[in-house]
Structures are given as C-alpha cells and as structure tokens.
C-alpha cells in the first residue's frame, strides 16, 4: 500500500538526516490508516532524542496511534588520546496497545516506505504498546554495542554539541578563558570562602570523610548488638549455645540450590512420573509481537502440544496486567523478548508467579526450536513430564503426515538482494514451512535467485510458476523429480491461516 508523505513530513525527515541539523528526533503518524493512500504527517519533532521518543510512545494518547520516525545517538569512539564522535540514527516503528488488528497487519507492508527517508540507520526497532524494553537505554546500548564501531554511546547527544559527553561537561568554562580578568574573578570568590573555615576548622575538613565511615561503623555496631541480643533471647528460651539458633534459620535457605536447577528441563526437578496431573504447560506468547515468525511459531506450538493431548495455559506477555509474571519468566529463562517460551508449572501455582521471589513456581522447558526437536524425537510429552509419547501417539493424521514428510522435498526460491519487506516475507515463509515438521536440512532447499550459478535453475522454476522476478516462491518435488508450484508469499500465508497448507503440499490427507 502506497503512503503519501506531506511536504512538512518530507522536510522534517530531510532535516533530521542533515549532519548540521540541531534536530535530534522526529516522529510521524498516520491519521487515517484506512485510506487507499494513507497520509504521513509530523507527530512531533525537536530535541530530546531517545528519551523524547520513549516518552511519546508511552503517552496514553499514543496508544491509539501508529508512530514511526528516527532519533539521533552519538557514537563515541575513543582510541588512545584521540576521540571521535559520529552521528547515528535509530529507526523506530511503534503500534499502540489500542491500534486495531487490521492496521497492525499493514505494518509489514509499510516498513519499506517508513524506512526509505532514513537510509543507513544503526538499528531498526519495532515496538508494540506495553513492551518498550528495546527502547530502554540499557537494552538499546547493548544492541548498538553488539553491532560494533564505537566505544560507547551517548543518548543525551551532548557529544554532538561539543562536550564529548565526559563527566566534566561544564564546557562553558573554556569560553571565558580568553578574557584575562575573568580568570581573576574566579580566584576572588575562591578567596572569599577562605575566612569561613574559622567556625569549622576541625568539623568541616575531617567530619566530612568520617560521617560515611562512622555511619557504617554505627550500623555495624547496631547489627552486632541486635544479633547478640537475639542470641541471648534464643539461648534463654532453648537453653542451648548461642550458635545453634543461628544455624537453624540457615537451613531454611536450603531452597537456594533449586535456583540453578530451575532452568534445566532435565528430569531432576520433575515430580514423580506417576503423578502427571500435578503439572501443566505454561506458554508465554505475545499477541502484539511485530515478528510474523514469532506469531507463526506461537500458533504452530499450540497445535503441536494439542496434537499430543496437552492443552497449554496461555500467558500474553503484551498484557500490561501480566508484566510481573512475564518479567519473572524472562528471568527464569534468561531470554527477553523472544516468543514463544514454555514453562512447566504446578497446577494452582500460576497466580503465585510474580516478580518478588525466585522460588520454584515454574521451570523453564525451552523455546520453539526445543519443542519442535522434542516432537520430532517423539519425547515431547515424556520430557515435559505429562505422559509418554510412545504410550499416547499422535493422531493418525499426524503419523501419516510424518511418514509423508520423510520423503517430501521443497524448494523455496528467495533473493539475497532484496528490500527489507521481501526479506521479512522470506524469513516468515521459511518459518511456516519449518512448522510443517519437516527436516529443514534435508528436505528444504533455499535457492537464491541472485546467485549467477543458480540462474538456470531459477529460470526453470519461473517457467513452472509462470511468475518472474518475484520472491519468495514455494515448490514441491515429488519422488519422480516432478516440480509443482505451491504459491508465492501471499498464497503460502493464505493456506497456512486456513490450516490447509500441509494438505496442499501433500503432507496430509
């Protein structure tokens, strides 16, 4: 869908990418996304950089809007005595928590036009209302540092205004230096405080370092006295040596060894195999994920679990009311912002998962790849601790699919030289095909149409589909080497959404 940029919006984008511009952020919005050619207008621009963009995205009024734009960060590179500062852009696309599902569905198609005015950005962020972690200063710094090219990043952009972002940023001092008299004026106020030490010769210089130490000493003495008093009380009550009562509460902390075991999906933390009714699978998803791959993985995972008789409990990480539970689960898995994730939870303990304690209410099992691998091995239910795959096999249709999938081969025609939209569609199509349960290394061939050595085969595939220079395209190869065209990206998604893709490619009856 084509977007119409207003004159003001185009000028604001041009101003931001201008190296000499004092502007360090600009955000646009689409007032009417339902138009045939939606108009892009300026929502806000000015100084403030990352913080200004963060505040605008968190604004309640923005939860009904789609925002896009970019902001400036200062890349500081320090090599020995030489410090260089470069101006870099971070691109942002934001969909508020109250944006309609139809509008969110258009974001992938708009991603190219959104990014075109800002070439060469350091990174691209796609944010959904309620999940702003990627725009937090710490997370963003880690993302930019992973890309390399700088010693550190300054989000206040003071470096671009001449101070290099050092702690001693009162850089106005060098400016008055040429005026000799000003240097003397600074000495006069310094001389003024010299007579003042009279009331405080002894207290002022020395008490200042000592209060911190004395406070620490007093605190330590108070703790020691309290500890001794507690020991005396317990010794009177129990008539034992004061060391015994101190050891008894320490035994309560025996629960701590369960922390390293919590993330392990191994059999150690599982309840007895004969009591599977005590466990349930918690599936952490995000209904506002900007990644089509993640959305598809969530859908495929749910079907995978249900096929072996496991009904997962769904927790939406994008729900503001579930933020504490989501953050607790992220801490258990050690992976933030990736969906879906799977945890084994004791029944009735879901409400106890919060952000205050790290006790073993939940055990991290794995991500989508882990789940898919266990399913292929036939050990998914057994490894979760909810039964045995061999005792409760997949439905007949599933077994038939596996048998057919073992011989079926696929060709996904892609392009390594394409824009961001096509690249996202290619990755999504690949994830959908992986969800069919095939061996991706043996049964799927990724054929790059831009590879000169593959031009002959590419042209052959174009002859089968009747469509040239369009990516991705999916083909099946029968046992007799006959190639059949399945469809382009839109057709693959249509078949997948209707649940008929496996049947269409011959993996199900």
Labels describing this entry:
ADF-H/Gelsolin-like_dom_sf, Severin, four-stranded mixed sheet, Glutaredoxin, alpha/beta, actin binding, ADF-H, ADF-H domain-containing protein, seven-stranded mixed sheet, single chain, 509 residues
Describe the structure.
With 509 residues, this protein is an alpha/beta fold. The chain folds into three domains: 4-161, Severin; 273-394, Glutaredoxin, CATH 3.40.30; 401-504, Glutaredoxin (3-Layer(aba) Sandwich). It contains 19 helices and 15 strands. It has helices at 7-17, 49-58, 101-105, 107-115, 137-147, 180-191, 209-238, 243-252, 258-261, 292-307, 323-333, 368-377, 380-384, 396-405, 420-434, 440-443, 455-465, 489-497, 501-504, and strands spanning 4-5, 25-29, 39-46, 66-79, 82-95, 123-128, 152-154, 279-285, 313-316, 341-346, 362-367, 409-414, 444-448, 473-477, 483-488. The strands form three sheets. Strands 1, 2, 3, 4, 5, 6 and 7 form a seven-stranded mixed sheet that branches. A four-stranded mixed sheet has the order 9-8-10-11, sandwiched between helices. α10 links the parallel β8 and β9 (313-316). It is globular, with a radius of gyration of 31 Å. The model is unreliable at 163-192, 207-218, 238-263, 266-275 and 389-404 (pLDDT under 50).
What's this model, at a glance?
With 509 residues, this protein is of the alpha/beta class. It has 19 helices and 15 strands. About 18% of the residues have low confidence.
């Amino acid at each position: 869908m084509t977007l119409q940029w207003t004159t003001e919006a185009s000028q604001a984008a041009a101003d931001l990418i201008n190296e000499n511009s004092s502007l360090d952020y600009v955000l646009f919005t689409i007032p009417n996304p339902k138009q045939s050619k939606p108009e892009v207008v300026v929502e806000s621009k000015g100084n403030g950089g990352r913080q200004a963009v963060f505040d605008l995205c968190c604004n309640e009024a923005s939860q009904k809007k789609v925002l896009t734009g970019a902001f400036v960060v200062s890349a500081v590179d320090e090599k020995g005595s030489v410090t260089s500062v470069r101006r870099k852009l971070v691109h942002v696309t934001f969909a508020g928590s109250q944006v309609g599902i139809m509008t969110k569905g258009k974001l992938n198609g708009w991603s190219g036009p959104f990014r075109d005015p800002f070439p060469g950005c350091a990174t691209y962020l796609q944010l959904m209302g309620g999940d702003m972690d990627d725009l937090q200063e710490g997370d963003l710094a880690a993302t930019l540092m992973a890309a390399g090219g700088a010693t550190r990043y300054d989000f206040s952009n003071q470096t671009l205004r001449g101070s290099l972002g050092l702690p001693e940023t009162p850089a106005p001092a060098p400016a008055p230096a040429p005026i000799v008299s000003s240097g003397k004026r600074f000495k006069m106020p310094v001389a003024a405080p010299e007579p003042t030490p009279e009331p405080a010769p002894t207290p002022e210089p020395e008490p200042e370092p000592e209060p911190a130490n004395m406070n620490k000493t007093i605190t330590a003495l108070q703790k020691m006295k309290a500890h001794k008093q507690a020991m005396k009380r317990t010794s009177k009550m129990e008539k034992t040596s004061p060391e015994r009562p101190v050891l008894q509460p320490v035994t309560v902390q025996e629960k701590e060894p369960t922390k390293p075991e919590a993330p392990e999906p191994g059999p150690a933390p599982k309840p007895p195999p004969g009591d599977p009714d005590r466990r349930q699978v918690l599936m952490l998803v995000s209904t506002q994920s900007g990644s089509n791959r993640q959305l598809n993985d969530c859908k495929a995972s749910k079907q995978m679990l249900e096929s072996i008789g496991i009904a997962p409990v769904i927790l939406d990480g994008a729900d503001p009311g579930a933020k504490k539970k989501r953050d607790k689960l992220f801490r258990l898995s050690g992976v933030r912002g990736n969906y879906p994730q799977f945890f084994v939870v004791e029944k009735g303990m879901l409400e106890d998962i919060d952000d205050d304690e790290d006790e073993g209410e939940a055990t991290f099992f794995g991500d989508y790849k882990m789940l898919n691998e266990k399913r292929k091995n036939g050990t998914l239910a057994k490894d979760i601790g909810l039964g045995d795959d061999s005792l409760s096999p997949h439905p007949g249709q599933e077994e038939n699919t596996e048998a057919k999938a073992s011989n079926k081969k696929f060709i996904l025609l892609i392009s390594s030289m394409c824009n961001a939209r096509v690249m996202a569609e290619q990755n999504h199509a690949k994830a959908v095909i992986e969800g069919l349960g095939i061996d991706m290394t043996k049964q799927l061939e990724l054929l790059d149409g831009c590879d000169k050595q593959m031009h002959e085969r590419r042209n052959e595939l174009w002859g089968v589909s009747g469509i040239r220079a369009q990516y991705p395209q999916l083909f099946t190869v029968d046992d007799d080497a006959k190639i059949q065209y399945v469809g382009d990206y839109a057709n693959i998604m249509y078949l997948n959404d209707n649940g008929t893709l496996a049947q269409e490619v011959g993996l199900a009856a």
